[in-house]
Amino acid sequence: MHPVLFNLGPLTIHTYGALIAAAFVASISLAAHEAKRKGIEPERVMDLGLYIMAAAIIGSRLMQVAVEYRYYLAHPVEIFQIWKGGLVFYGGFIAAVFTAIWFLRKHNLPVWKVGDIVAPSIPLGQAIGRLGCLAAGCCYGRPTDLPWCVTFSNPDSLAPLGVCLHPSQVYESIGSLGIFIFLYAYRKRTAFEGQLFWMYVLMYSVLRFSLEFLRGDIERGFVELGGFNLSTSQAVAVFAFLTAVVMMTRLKKCKKPAT
To answer: Can you tell me the distance from the alpha carbon of 82 to that of 59, in angstroms, rounded to the nearest whole number?
Structure first.
């Protein structure tokens, strides 16, 4: 598509980086607005967002490097070239969760209440960020002859050139947008704290597991689980789905009313 947004003299602005930045701004802004509605200091949530942003970038890149370690051993400089794409969402999500728990405990903030506050912001950011993947050509889909396939022609693209591919980035963007709309509409009807956050984990794990079948980037890492050969992201999605079911059951039993 369009890996480079524009050039300012020697400075190159990559579309991927610009859209990832836009995703974080939109997500943090929405979370701060929701925090105010729920009686949490918006500034504190914005601080949390900055920590999460840093952890998400580092964690997602580390998982990408771990999955494709052979490539990065041969091209170590590219480990730091994140503007070219190559961020594994689940790596960033895991790092962000641990960072958020540390931050919330340090500042004595209610974990599940804040989790519900930020839950709709996550798929909103994903919906925007995946368009950056489309622009860069990363996370591309399998070859297809469907009428809505995409063909990459820009030599700077990370996708195979001249091949009609599933627009897997668009699929995930639309799916994430749907999750965002559902969570945002449902946010005032939750029965207990933590419900919205784990609903997000549940829905996204189903979305990601399904879309992995349409991904065409070969170096995805594979895990054998119950006799099935799953991609790394599919294995994480299975674990995330089961964890979400268990946590929602436990929190429902404890049932601290959402506020």
So the answer is: 12
Please return the burial class of 19, using the count of CB atoms within 10 Å of its CB with bins 0-12, 13-18 and 19+: buried
Query: What are the φ/ψ torsions at residue 18 (nearest 5 degrees)?
Result: -65, -40
Cα gap 248→137, rounded to integer Å = 36
Which token pair is 21?
């930045």
Structure tokens given for 254:
């404890």
Q: Is residue 254 predicted with pLDDT exceeding 90? A: no
Closest CA to 68 of 142, 173, 167, 139: 139
What amino acid occupies position 258? A
Beta strands in 68-131 (DSSP E): none
Which phi and psi (to 5°) does residue 42 adopt? -60, -35
pLDDT in tens, 184-215: 999 999 999 999 999 999 999 999 999 999 99
pLDDT of residue 257: 64
Q: What sections of 107-231 are H helices per DSSP? A: 111-118, 121-136, 168-186, 195-211
